[in-house]
Amino acid sequence: MSEAFSRPAAGQVPVLRLGNVLPVTLPGDLHDGMAHRLRQDLSEAVVRGGVTGVVIDISGVEIVDSFLGRVLAELAAQAGLPAARTVVAGMRPAVAITLVELGLTLPGLRTAPTTEAALELLGRTAAPPRAGRGREGSP
Amino acid sequence: MDTAAGVEARLPIRSDMDLVWVRQHVRHAAAKLGFSLVDQTKLVTAASELARNTLVHGGGGQMETAQVTTGGNGGLRLTFSDSGPGIPDLDRALSDGYTSGGGLGMGLGGARRLVHDFTVETVPGSGTSVRVTSWVSRPPRLREDV
Ligand SMILES: Nc1ncnc2c1ncn2[C@@H]1O[C@H](COP(=O)(O)OP(=O)(O)OP(=O)(O)O)[C@@H](O)[C@H]1O
Ligand SMILES: [Mg+2]
């Protein structure tokens, strides 16, 4: 099942829930206020419990600068989960090339080509055995 | 070909929303001048770093964009200026990992790597101006240093 944790207001990134995973899709150009807001929403969602992973889909993000790089690292660190439970999905090739030249590394953050691949990665390594949990399937 | 219309601009940098306009303008201008997707991305990323420095460290200022040409090769020049405190030790500010407050310290040095030409003029107590230029095709290598 999938339920909304927070009702997104204009200019807010919605934090949804898919089984034990919080999938977050960043907009093309995230301004700083939205990033701070997202950080709060995400940690509130984690505090409610049962979360085993976070997937941050950045396939729509046109650039990652040092600010957004830090936001991503902080989202991972303060989600209250081991950093490895956060997967950044869908980074554009041009963004990846630019990040290298900028000199930015995203320590501890795992990456996957797509959100599907990220969910699979998290499912394989951490989802509890399916036995009677009943939380997996989404509508 | 007259492309100056969508390229030349002077944009204020007073809030984080202004950073969004700065990025958008640089993206459009670079696309209009024929920069490749990767080169657009590099220039927009550099602009984002420099504009944020103007806002955060310089207390706000502006970005001016201009189309430049040399030997038939087109380019985009961005000038970020503020009347903030200036940068007392530029070499240190440019080194990776140096930050005077809470950042990663990658912005200034990283931006320099992402563009073809990079010049900083800074006067302690009266302000900073960072001018960067990138060319649609690589410029002839005149000298190695920046
Ligand atoms: N326009 C400016 N006016 C005054 N000082 C500046 C300006 N731009 C940069 N600096 C100084 O140079 C330092 C390094 O800048 P740089 O962008 O590399 O790192 P940062 O902004 O601290 O962190 P980040 O990695 O988030 O960009 C800053 O911490 C600041 O002290
Ligand atoms: Mg900076």
Automatic annotation (TrEMBL), chain A:
Q: What SUPFAM superfamilies is this protein classified in?
A: SpoIIaa-like
InterPro entries for this protein: Bact_StressResp_Reg, STAS_dom, STAS_dom_sf
Sequence ranges assigned to domain STAS in this UniProt record: 11-122
Q: Give the protein name, as stated in the record.
A: Anti-anti-sigma factor
UniProtKB/TrEMBL annotation, chain B:
Report the domain of life of the source organism: Bacteria
Please give one Gene Ontology molecular function term for this protein. Answer: protein serine/threonine kinase activity
Q: Which InterPro entries match?
A: Anti-sigma-factor_SerPK, HATPase_C_sf, HATPase_dom
Which residues lie in coiled coils? Answer: none
Q: Name one Pfam family in it.
A: HATPase_c
- Which residues does the UniProt record annotate as the domain Histidine kinase/HSP90-like ATPase? 38-138
Q: Which UniProt keywords apply?
A: Kinase, Serine/threonine-protein kinase, Transferase
Among PANTHER family, the record links this protein to:
ANTI-SIGMA-F FACTOR RSBW, ANTI-SIGMA-F FACTOR RSBW-RELATED
Protein name, UniProt field: Anti-sigma regulatory factor
Source organism per UniProt: Streptomyces pilosus
- Its gene name is rsbT
